[in-house]
Amino acid sequence: MEKTKQGVPSVVPRHVAIIMDGNNRWAKKRLLPGVAGHKAGVDAVRAVIEVCAEAKVEVLTLFAFSSENWQRPAEEVGALMELFFTALRREARRLNENNISLRIIGDRSRFHPELQAAMREAEALTAGSNRFILQIAANYGGQWDIAQAAQRLAREVQAGHLRPEDITPELLQPCLATGDLPLPDLCIRTGGEHRISNFLLWQLAYAELYFSDLFWPDFKHEAMRTALADFASRQRRFGKTSEQVEAGARA
């Protein structure tokens, strides 16, 4: 595997998506309340952002709160919402100073109006930044995303602007929450679990999957660099044979 002079792999994913798992188990192992793990996870977010910035990744999408997470204990959900609100207010200025644009995807309707306002303010503050995009998936589910894209196309059909037979994967993809961004090249999940848990179901069709046994608060700079190095060592075939990919690279 080739590396640049700075030690960054020469083949870097344009879009990295991460399922940040293991916060509760990290806290439980230390006899701490679950929210302590989520608070500790903020440092891991900063570390991963720094590595992605140095590697020149274009988009980083973090799965912060799934549509299924509302089923967790009310105390934990409330603490998560408070942490999210505080982090938005505190980190948005830092992101803007580092030329990082913040986007939030998911169904915002269930969040408190004050939190929705904080989301809009953070996005507006960082809107002019172009170093790379940090995308937070909050109250997000891959099935919800595909359904809302289908609804958008159904309304076009209902209005007479589109025929059902005209609907193709290429037409649906821009209607997804990430529709104007490159598809994820690499999906990382921490915490030792091996599933994608309703995250970016459509978008991950050809992403490379990387699983780490580290709990999210322990997934820092070196762990992220190791994941990027592993990605650089893989051959991405997209349905082709190895020989076809190699012949295309030589052409």
How much helicity do the residues have? 40-55%
As a whole number of angstroms, the C-alpha radius of gyration is 19 Å
Task: Bin the strand percentage.
Answer: 5-15%
Mean pLDDT: 92
Structure class: alpha/beta
What is the CATH homologous superfamily assignment of one domain? Decaprenyl diphosphate synthase-like
Biggest pleated sheet: 6 strands, parallel
Shape: globular
Please give the alpha-carbon distance between the first and last residues: 20 Å
CATH topology of one domain: Undecaprenyl pyrophosphate synthetase
Q: Which CATH architecture of one domain would you pick?
A: 3-Layer(aba) Sandwich
The CATH class assignment of one domain is: Alpha Beta
Task: List the strand order in the largest sheet.
Answer: 3-4-2-1-5-6
Can you count the helices?
8
Q: Secondary-structure element order, as H and E? A: EHHEHEHEHHEEHH
Kindly state the number of beta strands: 6
Structure description:
Belongs to the UPP synthase family. Keywords: Cell shape, Cell wall biogenesis/degradation, Magnesium, Metal-binding, Peptidoglycan synthesis, Transferase. Its EC number is 2.5.1.31. The protein has 251 residues and is α/β, with parallel strands linked by helices. The chain has a domain at 15-141 and 186-232: Decaprenyl diphosphate synthase-like (Undecaprenyl pyrophosphate synthetase, 3-Layer(aba) Sandwich), CATH 3.40.1180.10. Helices cover 43% and strands 14% of the residues. The protein has eight helices and six strands. A six-stranded parallel β-sheet has the order 3-4-2-1-5-6, with helices on both faces. Strand 3, helix 4 (113-126) and strand 4 (132-140) form a beta-alpha-beta unit.
